[in-house]
């Protein structure tokens, strides 16, 4: 191949979307070697390497670790899909951790860090309320895990239902609305559309029957949008996303509103909506 047909680092960078610095680094670690290094030390690439460089750029754009990028470059389509599915689960878990932290932070800001946790209820009521809350938070901790086992997925489902049961005994309609939302969210994360839809509808029904607005109502709409997306019904998902966006105007806390909007952006298949 004549030297004039080869691409310089800068030319490959422009065609692939990678930076010259990244290309030099990928050469050093053996991820994307140049076809030729001339006597002056200039790296030159075969035009056929543009497609591979573009693929590296796409993988890195979704934060796929370099070792997994290396693996994907020589793997079958099915193996690449498995790597990407596992990576998506890790990213979703990180996002859940961030969302959970934002929820807790909003409550710290609204209630004060030193707010008393005591109530005038009997010890048994306090115990059941504490159990409901602990189960609810335990579900969040499992959602935050990047590599849940099948047993942990099962435990997450059971804990969400157990939390919802205990709120039934000692909670308010708002607690029940949120409990149904969490059940729906867990099933949506697990790709189980039928129970996700059922609990999303229950969340909305409880909110409407009890005149509950604010973020609980908006999140009931969000649950329906997410469940329909998991069910493969993008039109219904879009319709409920629009309902959630309309309800966002009624959320009193700015932090809760921003959290809802960020959650809506994570609904599968709704990227074009934004």
Taken as a percent bin, the fraction of beta residues is under 5%
Order of helices and strands: EHHEEHHHHHHHHHH
Instruction: Please give the alpha-carbon distance between the first and last residues.
Output: 46 Å
Oligomeric assembly = single chain
Largest sheet: 3 strands, antiparallel
Strand order of the largest sheet: 1-3-2
* pLDDT < 50 runs, ≥5 residues: 115-119
- The number of distinct helices, counting runs of at least 4 residues, comes to 12
Helix content: over 70%
- Average pLDDT figure: 87
Give me the secondary-structure category. Answer: mainly alpha
Shape: elongated
Rg calc: 24 Å
Number of strands: 3
Secondary structure: elements and pairs:
Layout: E1 7-8, H1 9-16, H2 20-28, E2 36-37, E3 43-45, H3 49-61, H4 66-73, H5 77-111, H6 123-144, H7 150-170, H8 173-189, H9 193-209, H10 214-230, H11 234-248, H12 254-264
Antiparallel strand pairs: 1-3, 2-3
Short description:
The chain is mainly α and 274 residues long. The protein contains twelve helices and three strands.
